Amino acid sequence: MSQIGSQTGLMFLRWSARAATLFVAGTFALLIVGELVARYPGSGSPIDLREWIGFALLAGTWLGMVMAWRWELPGASLSLIAWALFLLIIPLENHVVQITAAVPGVLFLADWAARRVHHTARTG
Fold first, then answer.
1. What are the φ and ψ backbone dihedral angles of 115, each rounded to 5 degrees?
2. What pLDDT, in 10s, does the model give residues 77-117?
3. Which residues of 78-99 are buried (b: 16+ CB within 10 A; e: fewer)?
4. What distance in Å separates the CA atoms of residue 9 and residue 114, rounded to the nearest whole number?
5. Which one of 37, 41, 72, 76 has the lowest number of neighbouring Cβ atoms within 10 Å?
6. DSSP string, 19-65
7. What is the pLDDT of residues 14-34, one digit of tens each?
8. Residues 58 and 27 sit within 8 Å (Cβ to Cβ)
9. At 122, is the pLDDT very low, low, confident or very high (cuts 50, 70, 90)?
């Protein structure tokens, strides 16, 4: 692949990861705000410990995605580990949600790996 094509591919991968982060993290933020702020009497059972842990893990997933904008490997790792732990504690039946929420972390890992390979190939 040419140098320009390679750079364009790397840029596309990085911005795809960032766009996916905006979508997923924005959705998580709306979910958390909706659950914590919009609760009213009679809206269901109070939040229990398991739900608080789930919220903390969602926040960790969100934080990892945001961190990955600057530090791809640590941010993506935090995001994917927190998401995996969330799924262990609060299993979801909707596989589309499971996969969609993992996309930014996977893209940031791919970006990190591609940049390392590109840098190694360039420096010899």
1. -70, -35
2. 999 999 999 999 988 888 898 899 999 999 999 999 998 98
3. bbbebbebbbeeeeeeeeeeee
4. 9
5. 41
6. HHHHHHHHHHHHHHHHHHHS--TTSSSPP-HHHHHHHHHHHHHHHHH
7. 999 999 999 998 998 888 777
8. no
9. low
Distance CA 75, CA 72 (A): 5
- Cα 56 to chain centroid distance, Å, stands at 14
C-alpha–C-alpha distance, residues 39 and 27, integer Å: 18
The whole-number average pLDDT for the span 48-74 is 92
Name the residue with tokens 């009213």: 40
Instruction: Determine the length of the chain.
Output: 124
Please give the structure tokens belonging to residue 92: 């979801």
- What whole-number distance in Å separates Cα of residue 2 and Cα of residue 77? 30
Rounded CA separation 7/9 (Å): 5
pTM over 0.70: yes
Q: What single-letter amino acid sits at 22?
A: L
Q: Which amino acid is at 38?
A: A
- Of all residues in the chain, what percent carry a pLDDT higher than 90? 52
